[in-house]
Fold this sequence. Notes:
Chain A is of the alpha/beta class and 142 residues long. Chain A has helices spanning 25-37, 48-58, 74-84, 100-106, 119-141; strands at 17-21, 41-45, 62-65, 91-95, 111-114.
Amino acid sequence: MLTPDSTSRADGANPARVLVVEDDADILELLTYLLDAAGYAPVTAHHGLEALDAVAVAQPDLILLDMKMPVMGGAEFAREYRSRYAERAPIVVVTAADDAQRRAAEIDADGWLGKPFDPDTLLQTVRRYVDAAARSRRTSGQ
Amino acid sequence: MHSSQPSPIAHPHGGSETRASSSLMLRTALYAFGIELPYGVLVPLAYLRFVAIGGVDERLVVAMVAALHMIKTALLLLILGRKLRPIEQWRRLGAEALVPSQRIDALTVRAARAAYSTPVSFTLIWASTWAVLYFGLTLWLLGGLGRVGPDPPGGVHVHASYILPAALFALACFFAAMSLGYSVLVWLLAPVAGAISLVALERGLQVPGRSFSLGARLVLLAVCLAGAPTSWFSAMALAQRDGAMERGSVASLVLFAVVAVAWAPVCAAFLSGAIASPFRRVAAVMDQIIRRGDVERLERVPIYFKDEIGALTASVNAMVERLQETSARMRAYLAERERLLAAAAHHAAELETVLDHLVEGVFVCDASGRIVLINASGLRLLGLEGDGDERRPMTSAELQRTWNVRRPQGTPFSPEELPLARALGGQTVLHEDQLLTDPSTGRDRLLRTSAAPMRADGGAVLGAVAVARDVTDAMQLEIAKDQFLRVAAHELKTPVTIVKGWALALLRGADEIPERYRRMFEALNRGADRITRVVDELLAVSQSSLDLPKVAAERFDLRQVAAEAIASAEPSLNRHRLRLLADDAPLWACGDAGRVRQILGILLDNAVRYSPAGGDVDVTLATVPPREVEVSVRDRGVGIPVEKQARIMQLFYRAHTDTPHDYGGLGVGLYLARDLIMRQGGQIWFESEEGRGSTFYFRLPLAPSC
């Protein structure tokens, strides 16, 4: 198989869990593949409601969140998620909307990524937030 | 006595009937000598009584006096005829056709002079004939020359003492004839003079004739009236003392009384008639002025005498003229005013019609901000059509309150922020949008308004006018279009993400895949990028037309932005070389770095697209003193035909459509670039030569402007 870029490869011992919330199956598969290949442990959900369940089970280190989804959209999920959990994983909005940045700001997300994206950019972004989350977890854990 | 009407002398140009040319002469002769005749008989009879010289043949004396009178009268008639000839000639002018104006003027002046001077000059001659006649006759009778029969002892001779009574008697005759003759002639000729004076006035001629004071005339007349009987009695007294005359009998006294009593009233009657006439005319004119006020129809008063009365009538005439002038001016002014008012009303009606048929709503306020005019479309915009005036807004503040006027984003205006209020403050407002809600229906409307102050010549603001167009439907369409574009863009980007993502994911393992597949994946990636660019351009245009001011004004390093733009354009190149020609140091400009990158991206894309054979594309940065920076993008491509250069920056215009140089694209890039650069306070232009390439320039403010 393909060997993912070593620069963006995660620590193999204890892979970070990345929750991917995306209604489009092809994009979900693409993201899962890229994250998996980069050494992360992707968890998938097709909409906000599923994602809330997944959060309860998996306790992700990062959430990649699409905005426009059936059943429960990104904005509603973010609101629910924040209201339920005191300790939260960072949220990166991944959207095809032309005003991605504004939408991310609206739901107080930690970062944003416009579609279509370059896999390198995606993995760099993921790594930045995962590392930051791991650092803060280590700090709070000590 | 006699009529106060002037002799009906026809106007020389009137062509009306004229009396027989001799009528004046006849009348004058008839009156003059008809009155003289009784005196010519009575005086000699009385005279013979006073100079009662024995032995004188009375019949002989009477016959002699009558004969002398006949001769004298004939001579006087000749003189009178000569004097009145200009008047007769003047009167005949009316019957002649085509008389030169100069001749009429000359004759009028001569006739007037004759009419004014004849009474005095002819009376002098006339009275003199009386004096001479009776001086000679008396002398002759007193001297016994007329006696019949044997001569008295001592011979016949004219005694020196006879001369004085004879002279006194002649003087009495002179005085009597003078006053009588003058009275009659004035009575006859003054109206003629008046009629001529009217014509002279009408022809703009100075009324001729020597002026003769009324006072002097009355004094002379009094002298004559007093002198005649005094001289008579003196002559009689002297003759009796010297015994040349018998003492007076009753009969002779009666005769004297008859002569005297008849003579003085006749003088007075004629004279008073002549003098009163002009006064009556003046009074009539005054009466007309006071009572009727109809100045236009006032007639001129004839100038009967060249004296104080004449001066008075001349003044009255001048006054009438002035009144008529004033009246004519007033009439003309009133007519002009009427005309102007009608024209103004017409224009106002026209304007109102035009205003009411305008699609745009027109709102006008005065300097105090009171709304003074709203046209039919304006009322419709406010939902007031068919309503009475009671719901009409009186001020823009009221309009703002009642109709909840606010920005399209929803934030309310303060009353002084409304276009009309700002125009009143001297500003010109162009195409600004306001949202308002009809309070009765709750319907929202979007208006696009322009407003401007109305200024007087001096520049003072008299009021303001606002023109508003209902763009609700257009805006809804625009919003729908944008919404559609966003949805479409979203729907397009999702599959593109899949294509691009997988192509790049596969390329990440490039070492393991054959070269052929690598090239295919790269092509897939480029194709996805092109779709993305088209979608982004469409979105940008829709945002651009929404007029959302999303342009930042920040300090940024133009050199770095240009380098980034070149770097991001490079991966898609194979035959071209992009060069950045600039100093190494940062170049701080003022604007929106992201937008400038976008502009450079568009220009670079065009430069590469339209130089298919490859070659250098140069991006040059240069400061333009004092505070601008100029960016140019130069290619060596196909260039733009001159006839298409003017339209090159229009939306959706593509210069190379359906030509061998059609390398695709939406025709959006340059429009967008121009829009973006103008919003940053910059400018954009280009130079191009077909077959040689194009250079696009844009300028931005330098950093200190931020």
